[in-house]
Amino acid sequence: MEKMPRILVVDDEAIWINEIVAALAHTEHEIVTASSYMEAGALLDESAFDLVISDNHMKVANAGLELRERMWLKSQEHIPFILYTNDDSPRIVESLKKYGNAWHLNKGSVLPTRLARFTARVLRTTMRELPHGDSP
Predict the structure, then answer these.
(1) Is 83 helix (H, G, I), strand (E, B) or coil?
(2) Interatomic CA distance for residues 69 and 15, integer angstroms
(3) How far apart are CA 90 and CA 93, in angstroms?
(4) What's the DSSP call for residue 3?
(5) Residue 4: partners with Cβ closer than 8 Å, 6 or more residues away
(6) Please, are residues 29 and 17 in contact by the beta-carbon 8 Å criterion?
(7) Alpha-carbon gap, residue 89 to 67, rounded angstroms
(8) Which distant-in-sequence residues (6+ apart) come within 8 Å of 109 by Cβ?
(9) pTM for this one?
């Protein structure tokens, strides 16, 4: 039996976590949630994940980027990372490219549905070893 991909969803707002979990519920994924950068870091240290999906602005500005940097420093950069935020600044995109294997998705009213489709594409694509920083 093939292992179900494990996805870590990180956001400090329960409404977003609930919407993302609902959008991914029909998929063949095990979904684990964290409500902070610190909780996500502890979960990443405790067990393996196939994908991390994180909001950028939680209680601390740029917490999502800080989480990705932490993953890079702990040699977890092979784990695909999707950052969602309302900030489309080039700084965000360039920061993600620096750590590789990461994508930016604009937060919006249709995010959960788009995110479910994008998640499937990222997992499919990264399993074929997409070069770091390229878009699926």
Answers:
(1) strand
(2) 26
(3) 5
(4) P
(5) 28, 29, 30
(6) no
(7) 18
(8) none
(9) 0.85
Segments of 1-136 assigned E as strands: 6-10, 30-34, 51-55, 81-85, 102-106
Q: Which two tokens stand for residue 122?
A: 């990222």
Q: What is the pLDDT of residue 136?
A: 39
Q: Residue 128: is its pLDDT beyond 60? A: no
Helices (H), 25-105: 37-46, 63-73, 90-99
Phi-psi region of 117 (alpha: psi -120 to 50; beta: other; left: phi over 0): alpha
d(CA 61, CA 83) in angstroms, rounded, equals: 13
- Structural contact between residues 70 and 43, judged by C-beta atoms closer than 8 angstroms: no
